Amino acid sequence: MRKQRDPYEVLGLPRSASQAEIREAYRRLARESHPDLSRDRYSDRMAEINDAYRQLSVGAKANDGLRSATGNVNVANAENFSATRSSRPVAFPWRGIVAASVVGGGAIVALSFFAGPDVDSPPDGIIQSGSCVQINESLLAIEVSCEEPDHAVVGQLVPLDARCADGSNGYLDRLGMGRVCLD
User: Fold this and answer.
1) 158 by DSSP, 3-state: which?
2) pLDDT tens for residues 54-104?
3) Residue 19 within a domain
């Protein structure tokens, strides 16, 4: 592990350098040492320059924070300020998800007790097993309300090229979906 040099020394600046001077020195050294722009590969030197600039810019921000919080800067504490922060990784909020699921499930169960009885929906025109139908003069099955007189109940719906289970041809569905076999 390499020893970390003083960031002011890396950038070639005195300790009294302003932020503008730090930024100017960083940009100058970055142009000279950038691996993409120079013939030689200076990636270690560039990393050292970047670390020094990061420390000085974060240190300056920390000094500003100390100054605004306390009204003055304790230079001894500002020099020992570490740019690294310890933080824990972001965790997924499992407890919140589980709690919301339990509350939501409980609300669904509670509301189901207060719901009224199932109401037959009006005919939607799509025939399925259990639908009530009437056969018109063209021998097409049309879905109707089960409260109407002279209705029949669909036992099954089979493909157009098939026969009903009792051997009859059945009736054509008005939508052309298949043959209707009545109970």
Assistant:
1) strand
2) 988 876 555 554 444 444 444 444 444 444 555 667 788 889 999 999 999
3) yes
Dump pLDDT digits (tens) for 122-160: 677 788 888 889 888 888 988 888 888 888 888 888 998
| Residue at token pair 């929906």 | 121
Number of domains in the chain: 2
Domain that holds residue 138: 132-182
Pairing of strands 140-143, 171-173: parallel
Domain boundary among 15, 50, 79: 79
Gap between the Cα atoms of 19 and 64, Å rounded: 12
| Six token digits for residue 54 | 């990061």
Q: How far apart are CA 61 and CA 59, in angstroms?
A: 5
Residues in CB range of 17: below 8 A, 6 or more apart: 8, 11, 25
Say if 98 falls within a structural domain.
no
SS3 state at 115: coil
Query: What is the number of helices (H) and of strands (E) in the chain?
Result: 5, 5
Q: Are strands 132-135 and 171-173 parallel, antiparallel or unpaired?
A: unpaired
Backbone dihedral angles phi then psi of residue 143, each to the nearest 5 degrees: -70, 135
